[in-house]
Structures are given as structure tokens and as C-alpha cells.
Amino acid sequence: MALYRVEKDGRELRIHENADELRSNLAEYIADLSEASIKEHGAFVVALSGGSLITLMGKLCEAPYIKTVDWAKWHIFWADERVVAKSHADSNYKLAKDGLFSKVPVFYSHVHSINDTVSAEQAAEDYEFVIRQLVRTRVINVSEINDCPKFDLVLLGMGPDGHVASLFPNHSVLSEKLPWVTFITDSPKPPPERITFTFPVINSASNVAVVVTGGGKAEAAHQAIDDIGPDRPELPARMVKPTQGKLVWFLDTAAASKLDSASFWE
Ligand SMILES: O=C(O)[C@H](O)[C@@H](O)[C@H](O)[C@H](O)COP(=O)(O)O
């Protein structure tokens, strides 16, 4: 039985007894958003991260979702991607292709991987161009507040240091306001070269889910979710604040083990 905390600013916290319960809940959440988005604007525009998220999404490849989800209407992007060949073991595209999209009937023309033949800077520029083209052709909606693309769902993991996508603590890209996609060449988590959505794009999404498991992330989850006072450093995960969209945290009990338990209820 998941425990929920719904806070005044629309954030939702879903804490699960174990990874299997989280996987079931996450698959249902994504399938429901897919159905609602396709009903609303004829597509489901989703951005993935790398890491354990892909395994945790695995139930989407099983019944009933493999048949009930309208996979042909999905447009798939990456909120961050390593600047390596798409066939490389470090590629988030390869991770998602092997773990998910080779098992479900997505249109490969809707799977938007990076140009893996250029520099990180050029790959970020190219990726932003593809997103801009899909905004122009109205496949992707635009935020009512700024001109940022409004993804239907951005799926994030979180590192033990509180990074999300490839937005790492104390990095200058955290404050990028203009580009939709930027790049780093000094990632503390290997490999060093990555492209990443900036926070304006993440926070313009209609829905953002941060999916975190394991006790090694409990301190970061506490600092990202709980009221830790004004003088503590703001972790990147705490900067995920959708301007109009909804934020849902998917945690297992280990990752939630340091949360201020007084403020969530069943
Ligand atoms: O490309 C990446 O490395 C990821 O996008 C990264 O942001 C990941 O989501 C976190 O590091 C959590 O990874 P785990 O869930 O595997 O710990």
C-alpha cells in the first residue's frame, strides 16, 4: 500500500513498500498520462532519463500496457544523454531501446536520439533544433508562461548528490535560462560529456516524476523534499518546481527513510 503526501503546491509523494510496487504504480501513472495527453492533443511527448529509471519502467512492456497504450502516438526524448555513440553501453538511448522500446510498438521516427557524431556543444544545439521543429509543427505544446516546450511528462532519476538529468550540484548550467538544451563536458558522474534539458524546460512540463530508490539517496531525498531551512544548499532535485505542472515523487521506503515522516499520510 503506497503512502501519499500531497502538499499545498501540488507536489505528490508516493512511497512504496518495494521496487515491484513502485514499478506497478509508475507504469499505471505513465499509461494514464499517455491516454490523457493523446486524448487532449493527439500525442504523448515524454522525456526520459537514464539509470535505474528504465528498469523501473519495465512493467510498461507487459500486459495490459503493451496492448492498451497507444505507443504510435508517443514522441520520445531524453532529458539528458551522454555524448557517446548510440551503440555504446553508456548511451541512454541504448539503455531505453534495449530495455523498453525494442519491446513495444513505438514509431522509431518518433524516438528522438541525439546526433552522436558531433561535439557535446553541437549535439545540444541539434537536439534543441529538433524540439523547436516539433514545437513549430505543434506536436509539442508551448508553455503559457514562457516560450518553453511543454512536455507532457519528464521522467527524472536522482543521484545521491541530488542531481537530476545532467544538472549537477554547483554547476553553472543550473542557472541557464535561455537554452532549452545545454551541454557539460565535466560530469562528475561518468561519462563526462553530456547534453541536458535546462530547468526552464523541465519546469515547463505538464508533469514531472522523480523516481528514486535505495537508501543511498535518502539524505538527498530529505534535502530535496523536506523543509530544511533557508541556509542549506539547494540541491538540483529541489529546483524541480513545475511552474504550472504537477510533480510526483516515486520513492521506495529506503529512499524515503530520512523524510520528515510527520508530514505524510496514508
Ligand atoms: O544519464 C544519467 O546519468 C541520468 O539521467 C542520471 O540523471 C540518472 O537519472 C541519475 O544519476 C540516477 O541514476 P540511478 O537511478 O541509476 O541511480
TrEMBL record:
Recorded GO CC terms: cytoplasm
Catalytic activity, as annotated: 6-phospho-D-glucono-1,5-lactone + H2O = 6-phospho-D-gluconate + H(+)
Domain spans labelled Glucosamine/galactosamine-6-phosphate isomerase: 18-249
Enzyme class: hydrolase
Documented EC number(s): 3.1.1.31
Entry keyword set: Hydrolase
InterPro entries membership: 6-phosphogluconolactonase_DevB (IPR005900), 6PGL (IPR039104), Glc/Gal-6P_isomerase (IPR006148), NagB/RpiA_transferase-like (IPR037171)
Pathway(s) it belongs to: Carbohydrate degradation; pentose phosphate pathway; D-ribulose 5-phosphate from D-glucose 6-phosphate (oxidative stage): step 2/3
Gene Ontology MF, one: 6-phosphogluconolactonase activity
Matching SUPFAM superfamilies: NagB/RpiA/CoA transferase-like (SSF100950)
GO biological process terms held by the UniProt record: carbohydrate metabolic process; pentose-phosphate shunt
NCBIfam families from the UniProt entry: pgl
Similarity section: Belongs to the glucosamine/galactosamine-6-phosphate isomerase family. 6-phosphogluconolactonase subfamily.
Protein name in UniProt: Probable 6-phosphogluconolactonase
Organism: Sesamum alatum
Lineage: Eukaryota, Viridiplantae, Streptophyta, Embryophyta, Tracheophyta
